[in-house]
From TrEMBL:
<keyword id="KW-0326">Glycosidase</keyword>
<dbReference type="GO" id="GO:0003677">
    <property type="term" value="F:DNA binding"/>
</dbReference>
<feature type="binding site">
    <location>
        <position position="211"/>
    </location>
    <ligand>
        <name>[4Fe-4S] cluster</name>
    </ligand>
</feature>
<dbReference type="GO" id="GO:0140078">
    <property type="term" value="F:class I DNA-(apurinic or apyrimidinic site) endonuclease activity"/>
</dbReference>
<keyword id="KW-0227">DNA damage</keyword>
<keyword id="KW-0238">DNA-binding</keyword>
<dbReference type="InterPro" id="IPR023170">
    <property type="entry name" value="HhH_base_excis_C"/>
</dbReference>
<dbReference type="InterPro" id="IPR004035">
    <property type="entry name" value="Endouclease-III_FeS-bd_BS"/>
</dbReference>
<keyword id="KW-0456">Lyase</keyword>
<dbReference type="Pfam" id="PF00730">
    <property type="entry name" value="HhH-GPD"/>
</dbReference>
<keyword id="KW-0255">Endonuclease</keyword>
<dbReference type="GO" id="GO:0046872">
    <property type="term" value="F:metal ion binding"/>
</dbReference>
<keyword id="KW-0540">Nuclease</keyword>
<feature type="binding site">
    <location>
        <position position="195"/>
    </location>
    <ligand>
        <name>[4Fe-4S] cluster</name>
    </ligand>
</feature>
<keyword id="KW-0479">Metal-binding</keyword>
<dbReference type="InterPro" id="IPR003651">
    <property type="entry name" value="Endonuclease3_FeS-loop_motif"/>
</dbReference>
<keyword id="KW-0408">Iron</keyword>
Length: 295
């Protein structure tokens, strides 16, 4: 918030930004593939310091072998490590998942709990990961503050803090609870595609007129357009049109395009996948993952 902007004006501007982003990304959704709260919890832990695409490559194999918390808790660490190796930091992640699964079995009868207070008692799970699971698997509204969301919240003037807990609190005050989960998806989508960390594409930004940070990046429209990523990137117009026209099928369309781009998610494709060049994910952390750290 600028010194000249009142709290009411900030709230109105923030909600206008959300409305514009809703129009720009009617297909925004969780980009981790899952069929249950357990699968989303595991996928979110795996997503630290890698891409959702990479996680989506390994989870079909992981969940086929270990379909629930009990099976994962009884697995050999070496077997988990081999499957999740392409996601990076695989030893620390394997330990976190193994311990987490054991606690879900021992303390929650094998069922992933559906409250923030219970989720954050699990190894490696903090508010960020808990809000991902609550919002997308249980329908409980929450703000998910990853590196993308935190960066854009500051650029939008919604917060002055780098502390994810403070950012979460500040943003919650600007929006109705019913908007929190979808707002998180839209802001993260925008951060991955347009409002990039090093060089935001200001000249191609749908919320440029509402953003106090306009001008920090490329303002020339043509140059900015060349910075856009994923379905907004030059040459991806057909994919973007398909997503807009079929918002209910966005996850299926994404899965299909990921498969074409990355190859099958089984066998050697998983083992040989490189961990380099990760852009960041819905649950990314900015520091190297340590055993037991939040993902």
């Amino acid at each position: 918030m600028s010194p000249d902007e009142s709290p009411l004006a900030l709230k109105r501007r923030a909600r206008k930004i959300n409305r514009v982003l809703a129009e720009a990304y009617p297909y925004a959704h969780a980009e981790l593939d899952f069929r249950s709260p357990f699968e989303l919890l595991v996928a979110t832990v795996l997503s630290a310091q890698t891409t959702d695409v990479r996680v989506n490559q390994v989870t079909p194999v992981l969940f086929a072998r270990y379909p629930d918390a009990r099976a994962l808790s009884e697995a050999e660490l070496a077997d988990i490590e081999e499957i999740i190796r392409p996601t990076g930091f695989f030893r620390a992640k394997a330990r976190s998942l193994h311990t987490l699964a054991g606690k879900v079995v021992d303390e929650f009868d094998g069922v992933v709990p559906g409250t923030l207070a219970e989720l954050v008692t699990l190894p490696g799970v903090g508010r960020k990961t808990a809000n991902v699971v609550l919002g997308n698997a249980f329908g409980v509204p929450g703000i998910t503050v990853d590196t993308h969301f935190g960066r854009l919240a500051k650029r939008f003037g919604w917060t002055a803090s780098d502390d994810p807990v403070v950012v979460e609190r500040d943003v919650m005050e600007l929006f109705e609870p019913r908007d929190w989960t979808m707002l998180s998806h839209r802001v993260v989508f925008h951060g991955r595609r347009v409002c990039l960390a090093r060089k935001p594409a200001c000249g191609a930004c749908a919320v440029a007129a509402l953003c106090p940070s306009y001008g920090e990046g490329e303002t020339d429209p043509e140059k900015a357009r060349r910075l856009l990523r994923f379905e907004l990137a030059p040459g991806k117009e057909a994919l973007h049109a398909e997503l807009v026209a079929n918002t209910a099928l966005a996850a299926e369309i994404r899965q299909r395009t990921e498969t074409f781009a990355s190859g099958p998610a089984t066998g050697s494709a998983v083992r040989d996948a490189s961990t380099s060049g990760a852009e960041g994910t819905l649950a990314v952390v900015s520091e190297p993952l340590a055993a037991g750290a939040e993902s």
